[in-house]
Design goal:
- The chain has five domains: about 5-15 and about 650-810, Isoleucyl-tRNA Synthetase, Domain 1, CATH 1.10.730; about 25-165 and about 550-620, Rossmann fold (3-Layer(aba) Sandwich); about 180-200 and about 425-435 and about 455-545, no CATH class; about 200-420, Valyl/Leucyl/Isoleucyl-tRNA synthetase, editing domain (Isoleucyl-tRNA Synthetase, domain 2, Alpha-Beta Complex), CATH 3.90.740; about 825-905, Class I aminoacyl-tRNA synthetases (RS) (hypothetical protein PF0899 fold, 2-Layer Sandwich), CATH 3.30.2320.20.
- The strands form nine sheets. Strands 6, 7, 8, 9, 10, 11, 12, 13, 14 and 15 form a ten-stranded mixed beta sheet that branches. A four-stranded parallel beta sheet has the order 1-23-24-17. Strands 5-4-16-18 form a four-stranded antiparallel beta sheet.
- Helices cover about 40% and strands about 15% of the residues.
- The chain is an alpha/beta fold.
- It contains 27 helices and 32 strands.
- It is an enzyme of class 6 (ligase).
- It is found in: Cytoplasm.
- Monomer.
- Its cofactor is Zn(2+).
């Protein structure tokens, strides 16, 4: 009858459960952080340290969080926590964008549903509704971000609608006003006829759109080339609605052109045999196909530059379009498609505008903000640009100008809010010049001086700044910071007076920007120096990208607990044309440099197959709340750091399941250490110099992991750090060190040096690992920390990374143990094969014979290989030839193993099979266990 020695074995004991129950546990931990005011405690304990300031790019306050929000905010929190644990003062102040079209659009929807006219509502009342709507979502999103474990100043965040923020936005715009960078101009801008406002590039999405295409004859009126007499220049366009705005035709100066004579045409063709058409030489075949021309001949060849001073008539000449249409050289003309001639409408295109300006062509106003042609536009007054294409085709046919028409599906700009297609429309707007005060040059220099992660961001934003037009900063809406400007009625010039700017800003700071809409605004702000009758108050608002681009001024500079410039800006890669871009221009225009030292970008979310972006319309959306309610926020946090966020990220249920498995591996690593550290005291701690080689090898690995952790945090490379930590926990610890030392911890006497060494190393491991994991799985790390350090005010998040003694690094020892582990891998493989073949059950039933090279044998000298391989015995030899049937690992044939069964009986306490079992005072145990039981004096009677 066997004796039960269970009470003499030191099995793990811990209150840290294997099953995490994060969905229930995390809110409890979060409530404790709030009770202890973790954020304020971090600030108090960090005073005087080097600052690391990640400036929060403001999300928009108009709905529940989506997974893109979660990715962004978790990544920010991981970075901030990581630098805090490096020993810095890493203060994080969250913020929100609150002005702008999306909120205004939402409020207008309510008016439309109630049959009300928004324009009849008092603007101050309307703006109050917008403000209340924004505040509601700020409060909701704040709670949701905190549920993700994000630590920050949630009690006093920043918002762009705060009075102080609105005042500073007015001051920042005033700086451009005073230095001459701000001017009023009429240029074609991206315009939404649905929202009736200009849009910034960052507010534009590109979707497939079907456009009507037309090929149109422009009769040559006068030309320096005789062969162009009685010829029509043919243009091709995808925007028939811009034809009333045509004022010129562009050609390529170095391109080859021809005059082709139509010989024959298909029955349904609009081409006329005998007519002469001018087109690019490279496009003759395509034009003939498009126009149904079945036979032609080339009447003349010439270079584009020979078209200089050529004048055409507009196709509707004699019907209100009686102006000359000159041919002008344009470097944007190509032979990719069309005819080689580009119709120029200076009011409806960027290239068109600049070509017209360079040649003294007046920019016509043809289309109103609602998309309707003005009353003065011949033939099409009052018609809508979206619906006018059939009428344009009919009008062209009526005068014999239409050569062909068709349709084209192509990528086309749409409003990100209404999803309606946009138009280029010439409108009076307020611009910040890219050339005045050398803004472009300053911005390019600032880009060069900034650290871009990944480096591709540098090329992307630099190319944008190199070619971008002047910055349009005005919008024709109601909800936003008013453009604090007065126009002189007689001259049309803005009033440049710093005292006026200061009065406006002071009023905004005290009462909010609604004061701009009060009846006495002109008298109040102009003061006694100017007559209100001489000035007109501008009613536009500041575009929201100027708002967010100014956050560095009213957040970083305004708060003593932050610093300017920021250490880091972090957003999605789309913000190269958004927040990074506007912040760069605003800061360079007012301070001469970027407001950031470094910029980090992450990719977008894709479905699990990596084929589609996540969107409600595709039904592949998972909300963050669904995840934290089911699996816990730490699973989301681990997903963020486990993925390579420098590229687009895949996300879905199966990926979350994989992350859950990784989480369990990390949690079980912590649980193993906590369980085996039960009762550990300082008296048990063993000096490193007294430790066995295995423990000293683990400490060497700690030095390597510490260097990796610190470098990865500096590099913002958490994907690599996660992989290294996961590999360290799984391979170095669980599958190797823990596996080996389990016997010593369970079965050695409490004062045995080997057990003391192992428990000392476990304590050191836990102390480092829980800190390294704290930025990642912040709830779990704190839960584990409290097991070792109970107390209401205890938290891992006020800790910093431990300094690892340099003396722990031992490269020679690492090299030696690489050989030992090589041998162990082969032995383990042989044992698994023997177990599968039913030769043995547990590995402790084996006594393998191992053949190895001399250097491997030498590395193993003095080590208890049976303990290392978890067998009851082992024979190692460098002599002799291993039998043919010996086990070998592919690629490492130098080590061979023959598995034999161990001789002896199974110890009832440690389960090793040894010859001496049953020969000692205590029944059924080996010599080691007999000694331990005797010393414990707890053996059963």
């Amino acid at each position: 009858m066997s004796v039960d020695y269970k009470t003499t074995v030191f099995l793990p004991k811990t209150d840290f459960p294997m099953k995490a129950g994060l969905a229930k546990k995390e809110p409890e931990i979060l409530a404790r952080w709030q009770r202890m005011d973790l954020y304020r405690r971090l600030r108090d304990e960090s005073k005087g340290r080097e600052k690391f300031i990640l400036h929060d790019g403001p999300p928009y306050a108009n709905g529940h969080l989506h997974m893109g929000h979660a990715l962004n905010k978790i990544l920010k929190d991981v970075i901030v926590r990581g630098h805090q644990m490096l020993g810095k003062d890493a203060n994080y102040v969250p913020g929100w964008d609150c002005h702008g079209l999306p909120i205004e659009w939402k409020i207008e929807e309510g008016y439309r549903k109630r049959g009300q006219d928004k324009d009849s509502v008092d603007p101050i009342e309307f703006r109050k509704e917008c403000r209340d709507f924004a505040q509601k979502w700020v409060d909701i999103q704040s709670e949701e971000f905190q549920r993700l474990g994000v630590v920050g100043d949630w009690k006093t965040p920043y918002t762009t609608m705060a009075f102080a923020a609105e005042a500073q936005i007015a001051r920042e715009l005033g700086k451009f006003l005073m230095n001459g960078g701000l001017y009023r101009g009429a240029k074609p801008v991206m315009w939404s006829v649905v929202e009736k406002t200009a849009l910034a590039d960052a507010e534009v999405e590109y979707h497939d759109h079907t456009s009507t295409t037309i090929w149109v004859r422009f009769p040559v009126h006068r030309a320096p080339i005789a062969e162009l007499e009685n010829t029509s220049v043919v243009i091709w366009t995808t925007t028939p609605w811009t034809m009333p705005g045509n004022r010129a035709i562009a050609y390529g100066a170095d391109m080859d052109y021809v005059v082709l004579r139509v010989v024959a045409a298909a029955d349904d063709s609009l081409a006329v045999p005998g007519e002469r058409l001018a087109v690019a030489a490279d496009l003759v075949a395509q034009v003939c196909t498009d126009a149904g021309i079945t036979e032609h001949e080339i009447a003349h060849r010439f270079k584009g530059r020979e078209l200089a001073e050529t004048i055409c008539h507009h196709p509707w000449h004699g019907q209100g379009y009686d102006f000359p249409v000159p041919l002008l050289p344009g470097d944007f003309v190509t032979t990719d498609q069309g005819t080689g001639f580009v119709h120029i409408a200076p009011g409806h295109g960027e290239d068109d505008y600049w070509l017209g300006m360079a040649n003294g062509i007046t920019v016509p106003d043809t289309v109103g903000g609602d998309g309707l042609y003005f009353d003065h536009v011949p033939m099409f007054a009052g018609q809508h640009v979206y619906k006018v294409a059939p009428a344009v085709l009919d009008a062209m046919k009526d005068v014999g100008a239409l050569l062909a028409h068709g349709s084209l599906v192509h990528s086309y700009p749409h409003s990100w809010r209404s999803k309606a297609p946009l138009i280029f429309r010439n409108t009076p707007q307020w611009f910040i010049s890219m050339e005045t005060n050398d803004l472009r040059a300053k911005a390019l220099a600032a880009i060069d001086a900034t650290r871009w992660v990944p480096r591709t961001g540098y090329n992307r934003i630099r190319s944008m700044i190199e070619t971008r037009p002047d910055w349009c900063v005005s919008r024709q809406r109601a909800w936003g910071v008013p453009l604090p400007l007065f126009l002189h009625k007689a001259s049309g010039e803005p009033l440049r007076d710093q005292a006026v700017v200061d009065r406006i800003a002071a009023a905004f700071e005290a009462e909010g920007s609604d004061v701009w809409f009060h009846d006495d605004a002109k008298e109040r702000f102009l003061g006694s120096a100017y007559s209100p009758d001489d000035y007109e108050k501008v009613t536009d608002i500041v575009e929201v990208w100027f708002d967010s681009g100014s956050t560095h001024a009213f957040v970083l500079e305004a708060r003593d607990d932050l610093q300017w410039p920021a250490s880091l800006y972090l957003e999605g890669s789309d913000q190269h044309r958004g927040w990074f871009h506007s912040s760069l221009l605003e800061s360079c225009g007012t301070r001469g440099r970027a407001p950031y030292e470094a910029v980090l970008t992450h990719g977008f979310l894709l479905d699990e197959k990596g084929e589609d972006k996540m969107s409600k319309s595709k039904g592949n959306v998972i909300a963050p709340k669904d995840v934290w309610d089911d699996m816990g926020a730490d699973i989301l946090r681990l997903w963020v750091v486990s993925a390579d966020y420098s590229n687009d990220l895949r996300f879905g249920k199966s990926i979350l399941k994989q992350v859950g498995e990784s989480y369990r591996r990390l949690r079980n690593t912590l649980r193993y250490m906590l369980g085996n550290l039960a009762g550990f005291t300082e008296a048990e701690r063993l000096p490193v110099e007294d430790m066995p080689e295995l423990e000293r090898w683990v400490l060497h690995r700690l030095t390597e992991m510490d260097a990796i952790a610190r470098q990865c945090i500096q590099d913002f490379d958490f994907h690599t750090l996660f992989q290294e930590l996961f590999q360290f926990c799984g391979s170095d610890l669980s599958a190797f060190y823990f596996d080996i030392r389990k016997d010593a911890i369970y079965c050695d006497a409490p004062d045995d040096l080997r057990r003391r060494a192992a428990r000392t190393v476990l304590d050191i491991l836990f102390d480092h690992l829980v800190r390294w994991l704290a930025p990642f799985i912040s709830f779990t790390a704190d839960e584990a920390w409290l097991i070792r350090h109970p107390g209401e005010d205890e938290t891992v998040h006020t800790q910093v990374f431990r300094d690892v003694p340099r003396t722990w690094r031992n490269d020679a020892l690492a090299e030696k143990w690489a050989k030992v582990r090589r041998l162990r891998r082969v032995v383990t493989g042989a044992l698994e094969k023997a177990r599968a073949a039913k030769k043995i059950g547990a590995s402790l039933q084996a006594h393998p014979v191992v053949y190895a090279p001399a250097d491997v044998v030498a590395a193993c000298e003095g080590l208890d290989l049976a303990d290392l391989c978890i067998t009851s015995g082992i024979t190692l030899t460098a002599d002799g030839t291993p039998p043919a049937e010996a086990f070998r690992l592919e690629g490492d044939e130098g080590v061979a193993v023959v598995v034999a069964r161990a001789e002896g009986e199974k110890c009832q306490r440690c389960w090793k099979v040894l010859p001496d079992v049953g020969t000692h005072a205590h029944e059924g145990v080996c010599g080691r266990c007999d000694d331990v039981v005797g010393r414990l004096d707890t053996a059963p009677a």
